[in-house]
Write a structure and sequence with these properties.
Length: 150
């Protein structure tokens, strides 16, 4: 099995990067949709139905599948011999950051359902601040993987 993973490593890594880019695009866009959702004036039209549909489709068709593929490829790379030295600090920081990112993904899923019910927990400002979380996590993850500072 390890020879198989070593042979496929460049392809697994490529699919992983593609999935991570897709996941991050969705994670950065969904909170922005939440801002529009809570700040939309419905006096003239009802755009909330459109936003709810976009939020749902973004999660179900892009973010969720991309996260699953990123996790599968990431775990395959972890199990590829000689790729990660667990005695160093960077893989642990990366793992923690990915777990936090996955938790934030779950939080966004819950927020989408609350918005659809008309009971958002945050204001537009709150969702704008939440929009920074995946950015910070992405920066940490990229630095850990590329620079491997410790």
């Amino acid at each position: 099995m390890s020879d198989f993973l070593t042979t496929l490593y460049p392809w697994i890594k490529s699919v992983h990067v593609i999935a991570v880019i897709s996941w991050m695009a969705g994670m950065l866009y969904l909170p922005r949709l939440f801002v529009y959702h809570v700040e939309t004036n419905t006096d003239f039209i009802n755009p909330k139905e459109t936003l709810e549909r976009w939020e749902y489709l973004l999660l179900k068709r892009i973010i969720n599948p991309a996260m699953v593929v990123a996790w599968i490829c990431g775990l395959l790379m972890v199990f590829t011999p000689g790729i990660i030295d667990w005695s160093q600090g960077w893989p642990w920081v990366k793992v923690i950051s990915v777990l936090v990112m996955s938790g934030f993904h779950g939080w966004l899923s819950k927020e989408r359902k609350l918005l659809a019910k008309g009971t958002p927990r945050l204001t537009g400002r709150g969702y704008r601040l939440a929009n920074e979380i995946p950015t910070v996590l992405m920066i940490i993850i990229v630095i850990m993987v590329i620079a491997r500072p410790f």
